């Protein structure tokens, strides 16, 4: 199978690296974390048998450079980047969109701000903690992450963040060492890129994105186009709760994908198969 066609797209304050595979209706994949477009490498080929699959490195990550490296990040601007890609690759035709984690937050804003451009959104564990009844507790977590980042750096801040996401929420506990999680070789090879993007992710994306409050009434009105999804192993963890809360509020099914928050990485074949079914439902 041939590799993706790559391109660069100038957007406000940044240059986006994007990749396109396959043919058919457009499916835009929005990555979370610091993995960028490469986080979809294990599933994009299978999806491209049915769709024109586009993904990209979000602004400031990997090959997508910022004009001002110190620029503050906003969900609305990241959603604007996704819109520009839709306009480039699917002009005049609504597209299907999948977003994971912080990318799922972007997909929610894209849906509410530009519903005519989106046919269906699958949002996997968007950590929109502002919708939760105990949002104040999670604001305190983000404040601790920010303070730790400023005083001690990215890795200690990531440890605080990871601990706050887990079931027990034990503050300050370090995340499990990578060796305890068996990843496919292709995923393991991306570790260097992921680590390189960690300071930007934990310092800029986490505080801005987890402070974002979606328009819940607007999402409810558009819920026929929205699929809220979680990892089947994520129950009780913080990233699971907002999607579960919103699904309950909208009277919608919560679709459970294989694995946990990073099921896309740990169970790529099964994840991609269910994503295809979900997009067609």
TrEMBL record:
The record's annotation in Pfam families points to: Abhydrolase_1
Keyword hit for Hydrolase: yes
Q: Which UniProt keywords apply?
A: Hydrolase
Set out the biological process GO terms recorded for this chain's protein: glycerolipid catabolic process
Q: Does the keyword Oxidoreductase apply?
A: no
One example of the protein's molecular function in GO is: triacylglycerol lipase activity
- Give all residue intervals belonging to the AB hydrolase-1 domain: 25-138
Q: Which domain of life is it from?
A: Bacteria
Q: Please state what the protein is called.
A: Alpha/beta hydrolase
